[in-house]
Amino acid sequence: MTCLHCGKPASGTLCAKCTADYWDMIRQLGHVQLPTLRSIMLRQAHIGPTGHTPNRGNAPLPIDTSAQDLITESEAWLAEQAGKIRAAYAAYNWRKAWFAIISNKHTILTMSTAADDYASLQRIIRRNEQALTPEEAMVIIGTCPKCGHQATSTPQAETWTCPDCKWQGGVQAIKAERDNKLWQLEYTGKPIEVARYLTKMDIHCTSSQIRQWLTRGKLHATPTKHKGEYVFNLGEITAMLDCHN
Fold first, then answer.
1. pLDDT digits (tens, 9 = 90+) for 45-84
2. What is the 8-class DSSP label of residue 61?
3. Which helix (H) or strand (E) holds 168?
4. Which end of the chain has fewer CB atoms < 10 Å from its terminal CB, N or C?
5. Using CA atoms in the order 232, 236, 240, 245, what is the torsion angle rounded to 10 degrees?
6. What whole-number distance in Å separates Cα of residue 135 and Cα of residue 153?
């Protein structure tokens, strides 16, 4: 028998790894994500840096509607799963539904619909994580191979779903394609500026490394008329970084 989610050998609907991941996501949804999203919805918490914005003359909304949409989807998933345990549980509030699921671990993990339920929860967890991750913690992993939309994700993510065309693929494969295209990209600026730009793509190279490579003639960057500024080939820098590592 094979896992209906990943295709690996399994004794039931899901293999051992998918079962463990599925259960971790269920716990994360009720223990961390939903409480945090509800705090944000009610403006009790904030994602990213805080700061004052000019008064435009419009009263702020009392709730965060984006967080509300994520909460609605998360709560609907919990209600659906709780209802599969016992029909009456579908009417529970989200916290009681989550506790009902937690209390019936074996039932939830061995359901015939577990693979589909897991896939649905993965999408929900991913959307919630993106909403709960400060923008500065996101990195550019490449572009969508189907529509060209810029792909940003957390450094730890394994898969990415395009918000425009809904294409889904592995983060490492997207990064590999991006790295191939870096040879076609140039960046004009100082070593510290190009280092910061690469960091946004989860490519970590220090400005001192770039300066050393320039001094030793290992980088063929073209100086501009501005002091300390060069036209860099990004593929050359990442190739040097690979050799250095």
1. 444 444 434 344 443 434 456 778 899 999 999 999 999 9
2. P
3. strand 168-170
4. C
5. 110
6. 10
